[in-house]
Amino acid sequence: MYDTIFNFKNYPIVFIGSGMSKRYLENSPTWQDLLEEYWNKIDNNNINFYNYLSEIKEKYIEENNGLDLDHKVYADAATNIEREYNKLFKSGKISLEGLTPKRVFDEGISPFKYSLCQRFSQNKLKLDLDKEEFESFKKFLKNAKMIITTNYDSFIETLLSEQNVEPKMYIGNEGFFDDTIGWSELYKIHGDIRTPKSIVINSSDYEKYDNESSILISAKILSSMIKSSIIFIGYSLTDRNVKKLLADFSSQLPKEDKRKSAERIIFIEFKEDEMNTFKTHRTDDKSQITYTSIETDNYKKIYDEISKIDEGLPPYDVLRYQKAIKKLILDEGEKGNLGSVLVTPSTLDELDKNPNLSKNLVVALGDKQFVYIRVKEIQYLEDYIFEKNGIPNNAAIDFITSLTSNKRIPFSKLIQKCDFHNIGLSKSEIDKVEARIKEHGKIDSVIKSVELDKFYSEKKFNSIKHIKKEEITKHKEISIIIKNIMQIDIIELRKYIQEEAFPLFKETEVSSLKSQLRKLFLAFDLLVNGDLT
């Protein structure tokens, strides 16, 4: 058992396999499970699925072609299942929402792969997952310099998006020939649910992948491994993708001390119920690559240690600033342009659309609208609700201390991300913040402040959709949402607040309705970011 698991200090490259989806998502299948599921959808002549797999396996054994045997069996099975499934679609025996025969013809879509995309589009979390570990997993993803995955689902990018991180995403072999930034990038090398044609599952898909993409992936990783280690998580050591990468590394990595090699390549191996982290150095028999193996079920400890790595800026911010600075200094500098343009953190990715780029430029990073003027309520709420992060902490704190103590406003996330005692506030301003925390820092107090009649005080709702079916005023609708906020799905709440509640707040002149909307914004903030007392 080791107190400190890793020795590296740079953000890692993370290779994520299906084991991570299986750990956290309901009904996340293995490749074998997935094929069996679709085998039962086709006309299989009542042949047992495993008898069918055995026939394929025997064929390869007879041909003395046993290398990567399971992979070949599953890829062959997928080829046949896809062919039969597509026949059923064309005959009208299977229908798929959103897919027509015309689309199949015009766009060359495989109904089987389209169905797979639908199958993996639902990211439903397990009810019994370890919530603390899961929160650590989300933070761990933010600290990955680059993520590479063979998973089709949108689980990873959804978790990043929830944290206001939008990595540059590449599907298939996209990006391997591009001059990419190398920070906060997500490579979905076996395809993505939004692009059915990108899915890699059958024999010809893998043949194309091996010939066109595999070596490019290895080259991309190797070029990033000068400073960053690579962590494999959610994979078995027998996985074909892992073995191929090790073989490529063997031919490309410089011959070096085995301990140094082991620090570059790390495998997290699942060992059920093992709360210790057993760390050993192993050498792969075929590739002769030495790597670090960590056996554990204590994934939280792994995540937490990676999350502590700090290179000054998180990978996503490096991506945003690097893209901005490269565009302004390199591209415009080569033209001999000089001058000034002010760049805000929330608009870095929009610089190429800025009409001022035709002028002479110099770079300044900051936010002009908040340098000389006091933040207005509508600016604060829009920045907060849509997580734009354009207002500096001290300007935001200055705004909330300017409010009367009884005025509710979301502030939990702000307080938790900044140490307001050490940003130059006066004692009276600190006292105002502490008073606001005491008065408005608990979600229960917001819920209890809502006044409803006996019927709606007692009636329970778990969906905004159901609340909207009641013939009630907008004020009462918002009150009922606040009253039942603990039972309503966070995604549904966020959508309602961003698409309905905030636009209503901007438009209405009714002060009582504005007050109720402020309560909703605060309640949601406390629900998502936690109580302050």
Automatic annotation (TrEMBL):
InterPro entries for this protein: UCP014677 (IPR011202)
Name of the protein: SIR2 family protein
Annotated organism of origin: Xenorhabdus budapestensis
